[in-house]
Amino acid sequence: IIYTAKYTGTYHVHRMAMLGSRVGYTLTLKVGLGGGTCADPVYSTSSQQFGSSSNDLGEMVWSQFDPGTGYNQIYSGNSSTIRRLTTDLAPHDNPSLNNRGDVIWEQKEFWQTTGLIYGIISGQLTQVTADGGSPSINDSQEIVWSRMTNGFMQIYSNRRGYLTTDLVDHWNPSINNAGDAVWAQLDPVTGRQQGFKLAAWTTTPGQMTSGPLNHFAAKISNSGEIVWSESLMPGPGARVHSSTRGQLTSDACPAGDDHFTPAVNACGDM
Questions:
Q1: Does residue 172 have a pLDDT over 80?
Q2: pLDDT of amino acid 165
Q3: Predicted confidence (pLDDT) per residue in 52-83, tens digit
Q4: What is the mean pLDDT of the chain?
């Protein structure tokens, strides 16, 4: 049986089986446009879009070039409702969103080596840090970000201080509600970026990925699933992989050169 809902509303599926029946069944639900076998655009526009974050309620945030201001601005919404969250004359990139509706992002001009982190937290525009980039926020409002320290990019938490101190660069951290943090860092032996995870309130990170490819822009969901981009170089040929589902994108699905900076929520939406 294949049924397409014609309008927004509440639908019920009631399945019954005779006593002693051993018939199996599969129920598949696809929300939104498209066939469900490939990723669909959330919001199509002629303007460049960068980065993304998604919460467990289905809301997304992303950075998008705004011709009116000449800068990237932060947008929020889903496939039906879109709104712009920022309007000031500054670059806004790498947003992160939690289930409370808090949004944080990085502001950095192209000539700057380090940026500022701002956010709309508990409904108020707030400057979070005076340096750093690529922030991530969870529901308890713990924030992690990368900051330059003694010549290397280290991962820092507003609750726990420095999470890393080893003499390599660490990029693009992500934190979930449990306090687990993931990021990418350079492997000096192979010269490739690999994914690392620091479980909540522990002090020793564990390596998640290995091999001859670069693994970058890791994000962790509140269910513990981790997604990242993987390619020979940090750019060309990047495809999205999952710690639980394997490779999620391919050359033809969705079609395009590269698949960057994925985000995943506890429902498995990516």
A1: yes
A2: 95
A3: 999 999 899 999 999 999 999 999 987 678 99
A4: 90
| Residues 30, 94: Cα–Cα separation, whole Å | 28
As a whole number of angstroms, the distance between CA 49 and CA 53 comes to 12
Least trusted range by pLDDT, from 2-11, 158-167, 214-223: 2-11
First to last CA, the chain: 27
Whole-model pTM: value is 0.85
Q: Token pair of 20, please?
A: 């002693």
| Pairwise CA distance, residues 175 & 181, whole Å | 4
Nearest to 74 by CA among 47, 105, 99, 117: 105
> What is the spatial distance between Cα 228 and Cα 111, in angstroms, rounded to a whole number?
27
Pick from 146, 237, 132, 142: which is nearest to 186 by CA? 146
CA-CA distance, 176 to 179, in Å (whole number)?
Answer: 5
- Distances in Å between the Cα of 42 and the Cα atoms of 26, 67, 243 are 27, 20, 23
84, 124, 190, 199 from 101: Cα distances, Å: 14, 11, 40, 24
**Which pair of tokens denotes residue 1?**
């049986």
The amino acid at 228? W
Higher-pLDDT residue of 253 and 223 is 223
User: How buried is residue 188: exposed, middle or buried, by Cβ count under 10 Å (0-12/13-18/19+)?
Assistant: exposed
